[in-house]
Amino acid sequence: MNSKYIDYTNFNPLKVASIAFIFSVVVTQLVALRIYKVVKENEQLQVKQEAIQVKNQFENVLNNSESASKIIAFLVQNEFAETYFDSVSKNIILENKYIDALQLVEGKKIIRTFPLDGNENVIGYEVLEDSIHKKAAVKAILRNKLYFEGPFLLKQGEEGIVGRLPIYLKGNLWGFAAVIIRKETLLNAIGINKNGMNETYSYQISKKDNNSNAFFEPIENRDSAVSFTTNLSAGDWEIFVMSNNPQYKQRALQFSILGILFSITFAILFYNLINQPVKLKKLVDEKTQDLAILNKTLEKRAQELSNSNKELEQFAYVASHDLQEPLRMVNNFLTQLEKKYADQLDDKAKQYIHFAVDGAKRMRTIILDILEFSRIGKYDEPMKVVDLNQVVDEVCKILNNTIIEKKASIEYGDLPFLNTYQVPIQQVFMNLIGNSLKYSKSEVNPIIKIICTESDEFWKFAVSDNGIGIEEEYFDKVFEIFQRLHSKGEYSGTGVGLAIVKKTIENLGGKVWLESKIQEGTTFYFTLPKNNK
Q1: How far apart are CA 147 and CA 144, in angstroms?
Q2: Which of 357, 98, 62, 92 has the alpha carbon at shortest distance from 232?
Q3: Which helix (H) or strand (E) holds 335?
Q4: Residue 286 CA neighbour count, 13 Å, CB half
Q5: In this predicted model, what pLDDT tens digit does every residue of 270-314 receive, in sequence order?
Q6: Helix (H, G, I), strand (E, B) or coil at 160
Q7: Which of 345, 375, 405 is the last residue of a domain?
Q8: Residues 76 and 180 in one domain
Q9: What residues are paired with 514 via a beta bridge?
Q10: pLDDT tens-place string over residues 321-360
Q11: Coil/strand/helix, residue 144
């Protein structure tokens, strides 16, 4: 499929950026308007739910009051009031914590009240002489049900509400059964404090036809707030709930401002997109030229590296053949010299010959170790699945004489199969187990343990011993070539073994490290990838 290159130099950057800005502003401000509406609707719904909850709690209190007033009316209609008014009223108040007092009004006058203590001054009070009380009583008669008046200042000295239920005897109005609820009691029942507000909402309960007769101080800005109003017919009350901290304007404004900032950023990006093709093309040309120079440099370095590798291979050949031959000759001639003239040489001369022969042997060993180190990573054998149990068995056979001599114990469990090169991995175990045997304590039989654990991508091996240990400051140094921690008189070796281990493990894609304590032993850890390719 052919693709066409868009030449942005044909566009006017400022014009395109302006169009992008206008488009982005329109979209973001439409979203801000939607946020305004959705958040306001949500807050309005929350206020409505709060108002309905207050109404339900209020109605629950009034329903209990209605039941109580009907019981009192029943006493009067069956001529039990004189005998049982106090006891029945007491039980009602004990059972209903939201009723403070019960009264009987015969005609216009209060004749009985419970509890009497603290309410003595209401006995004989002509309650219907007051025009406001009379108006509320008339509503109760017209509705023939419990009707509440208030809040107002009770004769007892506190604010409260009074509900009156008409009582009829033989078809004629006898009076009223009255329920008194203090304002404090009522507010506790519906969960509103005396100030009519909390952190979230403000409340107002007032008569529909008389807003001055309200439970709380007037609320300012009622018309502009998030609010809800519901009615309660038992007292012709209007329940008003308003949110104290509506967030719909703030959230919409925040998004609107962010939308404008985004639109500005969006327009700048568009402007740069249209204005930068030439600069980008120039930059690409420069980078292409730099890349070409870098490729030439890499080719030159690769050739140099190839030449260096050939030189190293040539050196390895010389080390394995040309340098070893003179050493063999020196060693042979000195050995023959010692045999032929043994009777004519004194002890000093024999010692010198021994030193020379030993030096030649050690030089040959060092040359072979260098050769082995240089060959790491150049494997003639193909990679194959290797049973590490067989590898360790073979190492133990090779080191069998030393194991028997030191009475050593080699312990290992079920080791895995690895897709790797057999010779180098065998050399790793040979060097690590050999080191553990070499640096064992003379008075303790060596115990060497090989443990393998599995993770998602690697096998982790641990080769531990109970030998002389290594000081922490030498943990890294022991892996460097020709680095020895002991003199040749104490322990033999060239200091190449652990360097070979490190280079081999890293060449196979793993890591090697150690942990050790002096006179307690050493553990060498190394990892090998599961899927070696």
Answers
A1: 9
A2: 62
A3: helix 324-340
A4: 6
A5: 788 777 765 676 777 788 888 888 888 888 887 877 666 666 666
A6: strand
A7: 375
A8: yes
A9: 524
A10: 555 566 566 667 667 766 776 676 677 766 666 666 655 5
A11: coil
